[in-house]
Amino acid sequence: MSYDAESPAKASGPRPQRIFWVVLAVLAAAVFVQLVLRPRGPGGGEARRHPAVGSKLVGLHVVPLTGEGDDVYLSSLEGDVTMLNFWGTWCPPCRQEFPHVAALYDHFADRDDFRLLAVSYPGGSTFDLAALRSDTESFLRSQQATLPTYADPQQSLIEAVEMVLGGDGFGFPTTLVLGRDTTIRGVWVGYSAGMERDVEALISELLDEPAAAGANPAAADTDPAANTDVDAPADEA
User: Fold this and answer.
1) Each residue's pLDDT tens digit, 29-65
2) Which single residue of 11, 26, 86, 206 has CA 20 to 30 Å from 145?
3) Does position 120 have pLDDT exceeding 80, yes or no?
4) CB 89: neighbour CB atoms within 10 A?
5) CA dihedral in degrees (177, 180, 183, 187; nearest 10)?
6) Distances (CA, A) of 33 to 38, 62, 191, 206
7) Structural domain spans, the chain
8) In the prediction, which pLDDT does 102 show?
C-alpha cells in the first residue's frame, strides 16, 4: 500500500484546485523568464540591430568604486573598445552573469585598447556610496574577482541609457558594447546562458578594426568643464 497515493474519492475534490495552482505557477515562471532572465537582445545579430546602435551616451561619467582608477568620461574612451555592464549585487540574474563578465575582463586583459566598466547600482531608492562600496567589495571577495568597478552617484548615466534604449526598456543587468568612436554597437538587456559568447565575438571584431587616425585613447578627462561630452543630468526620475 502506498501512502503517497490518494483514493479516487479524496482526489476528486481538491484535484482541480491543485491543477489550477500548478498551471498558474508555470505561467508565472514563464513570465519571469521572459521579462527578467531572457535578454531582449539575445543573439549577436539582434543585439547589433538594436535601435540604440549608433547612438552615444552623451554625459557618460562614472567614478571608481572598487580598485584604482580615475573618473571616466565618454571622451576618455575614444580609440578604445568598451564594454559597459550595469549590474547590482542584489540582482539574481546579475549574480548569474557576473562570473562571465569577470572572465571577459581577464580574457581581454592584455589589450590596452579595451575597457570594461562594471557599474554597480544599489537595490533601493537611496544612493549610499559607502554602503554600495561595502556591498560590492564583499561580493567581489566572494567571487574572487579582481576587476575594478564603478559607480554612477548622480544617476546621470543610467538616465542616459534609459533614454537611449527607449521603448525597449532597461533592466538589470544590461550590457552595452561601444566601438572606438564611442558609439553603441551592441545591446543586451537581461542575461541568458551563452550570451557572453556573443558579447565576446563583438568585442573581438571591434578590436580588430583599426583605430581612427588621430585618436587619443589615453586622454582621460579630469576637468568636467573642459569636457564637451558632459551634459547636465536629464530631468528624469
Assistant:
1) 554 544 444 444 444 578 998 999 999 998 899 999 9
2) 206
3) yes
4) 20
5) -10
6) 6, 30, 10, 31
7) 8-37, 44-216
8) 97
H or E element at residue 143: helix 129-143
Closest by alpha carbon to 177, among 126, 101, 233?
Answer: 101
The residues, any chain, with a CB within 8 Å of residue 149's CB and separated by 6 or more, are 65, 66, 67, 118, 119, 120, 136, 140
User: Which superfamily does 44-216 belong to?
Assistant: Glutaredoxin (3.40.30.10)
Round the CA-based radius of gyration of the chain to a whole number and report it.
22
Place of cell 575597457: 115
Top pLDDT among 42 and 187 is at 187
Over residues 207-226, the mean pLDDT reads 56
The model's pTM: 0.72
Supply 219's cell numbers: 586622454
Q: Is the pLDDT of residue 185 over 70?
A: yes
Amino acid at 123: G
